[in-house]
Design brief:
The chain is of the alpha/beta class. It has a single domain, classed as Peptidoglycan recognition protein-like (Lysozyme-like, 3-Layer(aba) Sandwich). The protein is 30% helix and 13% strand. Helix 1 (2-8) crosses helix 4 (119-137) and helix 4 packs across helix 5 (174-190). The radius of gyration is 15 Å and the shape is globular.
């Protein structure tokens, strides 16, 4: 596992507890891993980490069917050079489906797609990180899901086309199965 861990190049750059996306502590026993795409052509993982720490990623707060805290936050951001952890995996994020199981039970991983980056390298690094997290948290491959998996009640359409470059016509298909195959290949190397 140590070789793969080195290849992921994981750094910790945590949002301070009690601030912004970690304003409220909500414990979590992760049962899923949710894969996202940032849809931001201007920011790499370090820039997303800074935005999260500065509270720049706001979302309208709604007690029912909307963001619970007014900020977005997820656990990891991955680019073609590194992966950055923003919060402990034992805490709920605000990245998937408001007050649903996607936020309450899943580790959120955002893949960067900034201009000039190598998307294939980002995807491979994400697959490796996902495999490591599966192993450490006893999460089965069938519980590695795209953001699309979690409906966002009150939004139209409820299922987001995310991560858009791993979905076919806005839905999981051959590209998603290919990604899960990469994750499984790396997972098998850890056993």
């Amino acid at each position: 596992m140590s070789q793969m861990y080195r290849e992921v190049n994981l750094k910790a750059d945590m949002v301070k507890r009690g601030t912004h996306g970690r304003k409220v502590y909500r414990p979590m026993n992760p049962q899923y891993i949710t894969i996202h795409a940032t849809e931001n052509p201007s920011a790499n993982a370090a820039q997303h980490a800074l935005a999260l720490k500065n509270g720049a990623l706001r979302s309208p707060k709604h007690p029912h069917g909307g963001n619970r805290i007014g900020y977005l936050i997820w656990h990891f951001t991955v680019d073609d050079h590194q992966a950055i952890q923003h919060m402990p995996i034992g805490e709920q994020g605000e990245h998937a489906d408001f007050d649903g199981p996607g936020n309450r039970l899943s580790i959120g991983i955002e893949m960067c797609e900034n201009r000039g980056s190598n998307l294939r390298t980002t995807i491979e690094r994400t697959a490796k990180l996902t495999a490591i997290l599966m192993k450490k948290n006893h999460i089965p491959l069938c519980n590695v899901v795209p953001h699309y998996h979690w409906p966002r009640h009150g939004k139209h359409p409820p299922n987001k086309n995310c991560p858009h470059f791993l979905l076919d016509n806005g839905r999981p298909g051959a590209k998603w199965r290919w990604f899960l195959g990469r994750v499984n290949d790396y997972y098998q190397q850890l056993e």
